[in-house]
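Forwarding these from the shared drive since the link keeps breaking.
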Amino acid sequence: MNLRHYSLVTGAYWGFTLTDGALRMLVLLHFFNLGYSPVTLAFLFLLYEFCGIITNLLGGWIAARMGLRVTLVAGLGLQVAALGLLALLQPGWSEAASVAWVMLAQALSGIAKDLTKMSAKSAIKVLVPAEAKGALFKWVAVLTGSKNALKGVGFFIGGFLLATAGFAGALWLMAGLLALVWAGVSALLPRDLGRAKTKAGWRELWSKSRAINVLCVARFFLFGARDIWFVVGVPVFLRGGLGWSFAEVGTFMALWVIGYGMVQGVAPALLRGRVPTGFTAATAAFGLAVVTAAVPILLVAGLAPGSVIVVGLALFGVVFAFNSAVHSYLILDYTEGDKVALNVGFYYMANAGGRLVGCLLSGVLYQLAGLTGCLWGAFGFALISAVVALGLPRHAVHPEQPVAGMVMSEGD
């Protein structure tokens, strides 16, 4: 494994992730403080998520043809542009103009996020030897876990910068620092990293592997379950329902994502060296559904809302993190090395689709039924993810060898 190239990719992903987490908290808290409704707040993120769907599909195809360096550098550059564009927002604009401007900037950020994430995750499959299954799970878990821990730090930074530097000042500062990361990656990363040996055709955009298709559906509902409460419901409840300050909301969300990232990072140790399978994914998803249902039940029972939310969502984060780490390994195990960008892009398209639906439902359900409605929606999505995951292969899949009952993609 080329540790220099792994370090470059990971460092770039870390730099991007800090700005991505901070940006989400900046936008959410700034516009909630201006009096925007939960549904309007959800709309601010819709183009961000929708563009992720398109980006992951086309980004994987572009990376397979042109290399992962192209998509990684493009992702970093677009995030710098999005931060600068959002900083130009003027306080005197109407609500309609402000929402349109923010949605445009968030669309660029959504493209940037998924180009960067798809490139970084795909690069691990390229850099780790094909026969090293255990090492692959380890390095994927390290990258994913550290990314989510840093996204949590980004949430804290977003709340802190909003209180100290203001909305525009925070955005310009982040744009400048990320521009330095972009320059370093552009200069040092090899040009042919992750380029497929044969040119990918348009028909290869859509995976034809049954295992990958089933995993993508499970992923859709898994991330929908998270974002139904995560995007609008809990932050708005903590700020508006419990009266927490910007810093307190940012700190809670930061600690949640940091803890979630730490669990992802140690997921291989939790399995004690065993390689995860489809059965692992299904079992973990059923566990997530149980934990999710417990939170609204305890709220209705009359327990202190603050304590239930903090403890309940901490448990949700632990189980969800394990689910996510298993999925991140399985998508790489189910795919060939030189087609990794195509399949990872397809997988993250499903991921973004789940976030899009979860984002919209977060605002709608909170406005209609409060936080309890969001949590029951999350339970429903987690349960569907578990049922779908029962269709995954029960044993490890080696992409070089066809598996009985599966339709392998072209080129296998």
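-- next protein --
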Amino acid sequence: MESAVVPSIRAMADADSSFVDLAALHELCRLRSTLEGFAAVRLRDHARRQEVLEGFSQRLEKMQAWARQGRLLEFRQEDVELHRSLVASCASEALMHCWEHVNARLEAWIQHVQEVYWPSLMTLYREHEFLIQAWASDEPWVAEAATHQHLEAGWFRVAAARGEASPVMDPVERATSFLCTHYASAVEVGWLAQNVSFVSASHLTRCFRQKLGVSPYAFLRQVRMERAAQLLKTSADAVAVIALKTGYKNVSHFVRDFREKYAMTPKRYRDG
């Protein structure tokens, strides 16, 4: 795995200064996330959805290989093609044209952020892994929210690295937002702390306990249980399927946590 030496704040500011209007670039990034968010929502009803998702997985495998070799250029090319294929899945010429225009305007800035502000390509790969898992969700809001979070991540990294204060930089707020979207994924507290909240795992855990009275993992389990309860009442999915959709690979662990939360089994909750 390659590593990147984080430059000084002064050096980063000097490098960023070559981009004349960062506010305008940020607005363009938000426009791109809106376009991609629309495509991610439409994906659920795509006639060949599984085929499209398999294509994403194939690109992700290539990105992992390039990340392990530290090949930023090749990684970046595959990254762009991944996002382009998402938009192309809508089969809308107008949407594609708009996305291509916005992407061209953002290309240099995104490459700059990836080179300067990400600690490693494997970290960036991991964020794409979470993104594709969200795109595969049956919940349109999950796919849309994850798309916005993914494309805003670079801006949060810039702000965190330069020590810029902002209400949205609150570590607990950032972590809970991420966990509420990616509850079906395997999220490690250490990774969450370092790459979403930009603090140490111990500091994030302490902040969670002070603000919410629970640890990050306990919060994630609570989100999973609440979502599972909704699915049990609103869908005909088997308990095993609901367990998988809420982040559990082991059904017995799911049943154990559900009984602890609701004092009954998932089946009894559904029938009650």
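Residues 1-6 have pLDDT under 50 and may be disordered. The domain at 9-169 is CATH 1.20.120.530 (Four Helix Bundle (Hemerythrin (Met), subunit A)).

- D.
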